[in-house]
Amino acid sequence: MQTALFDHKKALVTVCAWAIGLAIFFPILWTILTGFKTEADAIASPPLFMGFDWTLENYNEVLERSNYFRHFMNSVVISVGSTLLGLLIAIPAAWAMAFVPAKHTKDILMWMLSTKMLPPVGVLIPIYLMFRDGGLLDTRSGLVLVLTMINLPIIIWMLYTYFKEIPGEILEAARMDGATLWSEIVYVLTPMAVPGIASTLLLNVILAWNEAFWTLNLTAAEAAPLTAFIASYSSPEGLFYAKLSAASTMAIAPILIMGWFSQKQLVRGLTFGAVK
Amino acid sequence: MATDHSRIAARLMISPAVLLLLGWMVVPLSMTIYFSFLSYNLLSPGTEEWIGLVNYEFFLTDPAFFAALGNTLLLVGGVLLITIVGGVGLALLLDQPMWGQGIVRILMIAPFFVMPTVSALVWKNMFMNPVNGLFAHLAKFLGVAPFDFLAHAPLFSVVIIVAWQWLPFSTLILLTAMQSLDQEQLEAAKMDGAKKFRRFFHIVLPHLSRAITVVILIQTIFLLSIFAEILVTTNGGPGYASTNITYLVYAQSLLQFDVGGGSAGGIIAVILANIVAVFLMRMIGKNLEA
Description:
The complex is a heterodimer of chains A (about 280) and B (about 290). By secondary structure, chain A is mainly alpha-helical. Chain A folds into 2 domains: about 1-55, no CATH class; about 65-230, MetI-like (MetI-like fold, Orthogonal Bundle). Chain A has helices spanning about 1-35, 40, 55-65, 70-100, 105-115, 120-135, 140-165, 170-175, 180-210, 215-220, 225-230, 240-260, 265-270. Chain B is an all-alpha fold. Chain B has helices at about 5-35, 55-60, 65-95, 100-110, 115-125, 135-140, 150, 155-180, 185-190, 195-225, 230-235, 245-255, 260-290, and strands at about 40, 50. Chain B has a two-stranded antiparallel sheet with strand order 1-2. Chain B is globular, with a radius of gyration of 24 Å. The relative contact order of chain B is 0.13. The chains are: A mainly alpha (about 280), B mainly alpha (about 290). At the A-B interface, helix 1, helix 4, helix 5, helix 6 and helix 7 of A face helix 1, helix 3, helix 4, helix 5 and helix 6 of B.
């Protein structure tokens, strides 16, 4: 009797949770489905859920007509480039703060975090004018620079919280065994730090890929990543639902998959270690 | 343990990050402050002149500013309300034993990874469009007149879109916090005969209060700067009905080329964000000590 009662509750919870989960996911599912419809089927009334003629025509058309590949590569270069550049600057800094803490380490960390709270409109005009005068408007390198600065505080914070968890005693022990500083870094610290660095990389690629203030304001055609490319569908092309859906699906698929792998890091990275 | 030698090395390792962030913060921000005291329009270069606080006066007495300030508060407040209440509910639900919990989590977390321009356009065209949107089909099915969301309730529509994007974030964080709840304490309360909602209000909610505060503060930082969702759906309209401060500053400076006025607006946005930031920094700072 007890077990039957338990299963009853579990079944109810399962049904509720799945219903809500599917409802939340539905706009994404609908977008994916619509991408495989003809334009006529996409606006059919009543709407068609499964019983339509599946077609790849929209994907072909988006890929052919709109320089899709260039925008995709812009997204890749900008998000990966800014993340790698950020890591290059952040790893030594986070490392030093975690292993050689000084009196002001905490203040420096807090100050770095405070730069993240500067609203982008507060610096939009100077950055825009400097980019215009420096020939950086609508270039990949310009966006890499801006996104590096935007995400640098998060990268440093994430790395710091990961490095903090590497116990100092291990270093002591390695030193006792006569390890040199070099072998200490290569054989002891690096293997322990790799998972943290990898999660940081993953989360920051996601954040940079979806960044939609600077990418929209500082690009036109040449360096526009997918965020800006999709924005060009806002009207009237957006009324071609099937094409909009195909383009959208291609823009979100890689990051959706990466995102699912980074759920745990997301909590930690975006709360600056305040919730683990 | 730290020698002088390693201290110097540590300083060298930290300095590039510090200098870059300092430059990023100080240089453009001082330029914005400087511009905000100028009469400066991109269309008439060479005619810049110092006009003191006139830009602030214009910006702060512009009805558009009050509309934008009100919209910003409604947008942030509305999204926070939906994501906190919904997030607590979903975290409670997901914390129960069920079949396929991993998959449900994956479904619920997905919207957070959708880029803002995609989610805004999908909602705008495929759901809220008064002719071909799914809501219009639903209305037709129910026999009521379709509602033109973006024309008649533009701010509400933006709130819905943004809340959809941020609900996964609050759910995930609150669920993480929920899982660190002391189960024995709950069991003990159950033994003592505490009813479900008493257990919720006296044990679960106090335990979550820290995580809720963190969610509120972090979301507020991001929500104050909502931009892309407004740009691709309503362009701030009709009129100023869905213009927030961020969008107003953008329109002033890059659409009307009024650098002076836009800069004054930017500085006001910075001040507003700082008020929130002070609270957030205190929270995180406390945690750093613990």
